Known about the structure:
elongated, 33 helices, Methylamine Dehydrogenase, Chain H, alpha+beta, single chain
Amino acid sequence: MDCYTANWNPLGDSAFYRKYELYSMDWDLKEELRDCLVAAAPYGGPIALLRNPWRKEKAASVRPVLDIYSASGVPLASLLWKSGPVVSLGWSAEEELLCVQEDGAVLVYGLHGDFRRHFSMGNEVLQNRVLDARIFHTEFGSGVAILTGAHRFTLSANVGDLKLRRMPEVPGLQSAPSCWTTLCQDRVAHILLAVGPDLYLLDHAACSAVIPPGLAPGVSSFLQMAVSFTYRHLALFTDTGYIWMGTASLKVDVGDMAMGLVSRVCPKHMCSRPRSKERAVVVAWERRLMVVGDAPESIQFVLDEDSYLVPELDGVRIFSRSTHEFLHEVPAASEEIFKIASMAPGALLLEAQKEYEKESQKADEYLREIQELGQLTQAVQQCIEAAGHEHQPEMQKSLLRAASFGKCFLDRFPPDSFVRMCQDLRVLNAVRDYHIGIPLTYRKYRYKQLTIQVLLDRLVLRRLYPLAIQICEYLRLPEVQGVSRILAHWACYKVQQKDVSDEDVARAINQKLGDTPGVSYSDIAARAYGCGRTELAIKLLEYEPRSGEQVPLLLKMKRSKLALSKAIESGDTDLVFTVLLHLKNELNRGDFFMTLRNQPMALSLYRQFCKHQELETLKDLYNQDDNHQELGSFHIRASYAAEERIEGRVAALQTAADAFYKAKNEFAAKATEDQMRLLRLQRRLEDELGGQFLDLSLHDTVTTLILGGHNKRAEQLARDFRIPDKRLWWLKLTALADLEDWEELEKFSKSKKSPIGYLPFVEICMKQHNKYEAKKYASRVGPEQKVKALLLVGDVAQAADVAIEHRNEAELSLVLSHCTGATDGATADKIQRARAQAQKK
Length: 841
């Protein structure tokens, strides 16, 4: 245990720091790190190196090379840089490499060197060029800050939603500031810069001079500044050899620390540590590393090679040509267990477990001591927590075995924390492997800084699909969030392999994915289409069960006819209409109509659409199909809907009649010709008689003539259009009754024998409440309707006599139903006697 703490270095009385090796770097660097532009992503992310040919001592003809490595030095990508001079490199939160050029253009590359996109930082930056740049991270995303040759700052807080802000001018600034950095306060990005002994804070509205509280006197210049990983703390290095450290708001002073190395001070990186027992800053010289804090002593390390520092949430990564190390404060749980002569519960439990393995009775003594103090639960928890902070699997196992040993002597210790720690460590050890190269610590992984979903996304970005799937299955994540999502990413990568045939790729994807829930074949097909593999996209769409997802992509690929077939197969009329409207805009009219002829359902739906929206197109459709029957109906509707002049209406009807003749529908043709005759006659009647005749039906025209007293014309019209006598008599009877021209009605009834009988006369007169006239016609009604006519005029007694005479049971019942009260009592008795006599016979 004493040996285990050999690399612990105390800083003051309350904190220890240790530095251990993450990887032995096997990358083959041809140049020193100081000769390259270097960018390393946080959270154990990749490393980008751009060999800098723009230095004066380099030949201008040498092309720079951009190399991307994992944190363990495994090459991921290498490409020749063919664009302009680069000022700065940096990684976004999504692990995209941002390359800021001298002309203000920012080129974005993927983890494997694939070009994603580019954007510009504005015309002002283009004109004045870029002197310096910073890539920073906020809760909104990754941002870029630019210092131009005009000594002005331009900033965008989120490159995913680019909004450029030109920061206020610093008064009197004639040269580049000695140092500057970005700060994030109150959800807003600021610029902090040093000009001689003065500090200025730029926000979107103003430039403010700030004075750090408690700053040592005599400062004439700030040489370097660094902000903590969480943007909560700030460190300033002055020309007097002191470091000021405080909050990023510059309102709280944590302390000043004197640096003994004042001569030729040239710090490369400075990283402050938040949430530590002993506030500290890591300072790097070319071959020296120091950890300084409030304590008078500092920790010093000698670096064998040029090194680069990467700030992390809980420490600093240090990599050189040969090694990649991690410097961090020893966590409290580890310190309690492993420090020399520790009597902490966790330390005693670890010793007890080791003695138990040796089959020594000391195990019982250690265990009893912990139990007597009532600290066994605390001991188990300390061992579990300390295991999470250890990098070596053997030490993790030792601590977990101790925790498991202690749990055996507890009745109700919840197993969740132990099980979760075992799971987390297994995942962490898997991704820390040299071939994977993601050296995550437990704190970054567990404490909501890098969730399991983000870790899976990073494995997918590295195309480590098998490992990602194994982690999902091991953690039993829901398929939609785990395996299905990763398989979908794998399929999207698979379609980019252009050396494999479309048929093989589609078959491989279907065999692997099958009907996996949460996987959209349309998304994979869209990626294939984006890669220029249209035929592969079509093959993949065959596996997509949702037509609503198939059709839009087929339209985008200009496979409209196939999209129409898929839409028809789905039975979704809205989808069919969508494709039809797209086809209409894409094809010329002839090709469009020919396409419709091959799809009867689509043709029918389009006709319905045209009936309400495009009547002329509907006519063209009927002409194309030689559908004379529908064409005739179309012209009839058009004659009334579109034409107001009688000549135009008659012409449209003539066209309709011709179409009906072509369709061999003589009835419709004759009816249309009769309508034309009627329209001409109605126009002539309006001219001669006045009044409104147009658009009346034939019956209404006859009725109007009768009401106007033009009986002769009405009779002539009936003869011309062969109106049957019965219908004419009904029309005339109704019209004369409406006029209450009873004398003319009587003459009309006597003009000849009525083809409709005389009961209608009785009914019409009673409808007009004229019983007197009705009685005239009741006597003329035939025997079979006599009873009904007499009942209509209210002569119940005579109706009873006629019914008895006819000996008709139905008529007797009808009369009896009309007998009411005492007035008809005698009639009712008479009917009953007649019924009785009829029954005797």
